[in-house]
Amino acid sequence: MKYLIALWVVLVIALHQDFWNWTNKALVFGFLPIGLAYHACYSLVASLTMWMLVSYLWPSELEDGEGSHEGKSGGTLSVKPVPVTSAPGEGNRL
Amino acid sequence: MIPATIVFIYLAIVLYIGIFAFRRGSKTGEDFFLASRSLGPAVFLLSLFGTNMTAVAILGSSGFAYQRGIGVYGLMASSSGVIIPLTLFFIGTRLWALGKKHGHITQVQYLRDRWEMQGIGTFIFALTAVMLIPYIIIGVMGGGTTLETISGGQVPYAVGGGIVAVVVASYVFFGGMRGTAWVNAFQTILFLCFGAIAFTLIARSLGGLDVTMQQLASSPKTAPLLSRERIPTPEFFSYMFIPLSSIMFPHIAIMCLTAEKIGHFKKTIIFYPICIMLIWLPSVYLGVVAASQYPNLTPGQANDVIIRLLTDKTSVVVAGILGAGIMACVMASDSQILALSTMFTEDLFAYYGGRKKFGPGAEVWAGRAFIVLIGVVSYLIALELKDKANIFDLAVRFAFSGFAALSPIMLAALFWKRSTKWGALAAAGWVLFSVLGNWYLTAISDSIAPKPPAAAKPAVVGEPANPAAPPAVGRPPKPAPPVQIYPALGNMFLRGPTNVTVYGFLPVMPMVLISGLLMWLVSLATPPPSQATIDKYFPPRNKR
Fold first, then answer.
1. Contact B337, B345 (CB under 8 A)
2. What string of H, E and C letters represents the secondary structure of B150-204?
3. Is the pTM of this model over 0.90?
4. A64: nearest Cα among B104, B103, B37, B94
5. ipTM, 2 dp
6. CATH superfamily of B2-452+467-543
7. What are the tens digits of pLDDT across the range B467-504?
8. Using a CB-CB distance cutoff of 8 angstroms, which residues of chain A are in contact with residue B265?
9. Which chain B residues are within 8 Å of A84, Cβ to Cβ?
């Protein structure tokens, strides 16, 4: 499934380059230029693609991190400095 | 004056939202800068989307479509509709998780810690801050110009810009991230709802969109607007790289940290392409429609076509409400002001000893002091350079390319253990060099730039068009071919009417690709961070 969705995402990105519509001035329903109709549909397909991504490839391992920072600092960022290089002059200058 | 009055009512509402948010907030730094990482799914979607929507979305897109046709939607909207959600999926969620776990509040805090660096982090901070500042200034200028236009000149530019600067700085000052997010959510609802109403009213007043489209199609001068003929293939392709900038803009990255749960990203990622479509499709369409109503506008005048249509085709009340919607877009500088203030406070003030010296509580007041300072300075610059808005337009365009070219740094930090701070320095240095190089090439080639198709008779602002007038006839204006900037280098650097290209592609494409290449090569040639840091950000699987 992972590879199928990845392939689908690549295909969707490639489909953005609809060179076959470049000079086509046909009007869909009499008022919508076909190039614009194509890209409006493309937006809907992009939304569907995102639904597939969040449904099947959601990075659930990241949810493990929820709540860990507040527990240490009481919800106040200012008392939780970034640890490794938290102040200039300590360790590597760059 | 009615439209201006409605806009003032709107400004009062957003000011109240900011003050209301102030009452709801606590006094901690995390609350002020990140709304305590507590935004719910609806506010997160609407505010993140609203933060990304600037004056470019409504005014710029319709003006651009007026000149170059329906292809503008594919060029800027549908490409963003697929790339931005992908960056939120792959980068935004990880930034959120790391921020939550380690307490990061800015991109630079994360990068400093990820690569054990100090000065390079400060360099990346300075680069992003410098690329963000023109955005804020152009927001104030846009506010002044819009108020002046909507009020028919009764509110002068200087007063309008001042009012916008004071209102934005006030609700950001009081409400912090919570106020900014709420205002952005309100603004998004406003222009989604009233944009649809305006589109319907304008379509009805034109006597049917099919008639207008047939009129455009029957004229050789305007027929190319119904296709992508006026957009070269390499330019269309290279525009796909521009949306990579979104996640690298500090205000977007910081906004990603405000979600209460990672699950809130899901709806945002799914609905983002649809939100973009709802805003951009009518804007681009109306820009093309305007070509039948107001022929022969110059590129500068074309940016006003939506306001012209509103004024001429709807009632004053609707025009006023829509004017407020446009102000909402123009005022997107709120989150940028807050982001800049957050960066100053966290990446400079707190990092270089302010936190230790003055205590944690001083951070919020340092942030607020920066907000006032940024508001005043941007207003003064906007006043001083009133007639030179194109300078900032240019700077913003370059900034988009610059932020896009920074994206390989973030991708390497998140996904490549072996990446190093030296790789990040090389990539960031390249971004600085290429942005300046792009600016230089654009400046020196201004005199040889081919002119856009000449405007036969510029229309007068506010002059009603005659829909019954026969369409203009004659051959379509032939776009002038781009000019070689250095003939000895062949087509390497070409100058078109508005921008420089590299073998016909926008500079953003080589900028991103070379940035990624430098990140990769220099990282391989330099020592990685300590194992402890790598384990911190890439925990061994058996320890998870």
1. no
2. HCCCCCCHHHHHHHHHHHHHHHHHHHHHHHHHHHHHHHHHHHHHHHHHHHHHHHH
3. no
4. B94
5. 0.87
6. Sodium/glucose cotransporter (1.20.1730.10)
7. 444 444 444 455 678 899 999 999 999 998 778 999 99
8. 54
9. 112-113, 116, 533, 536
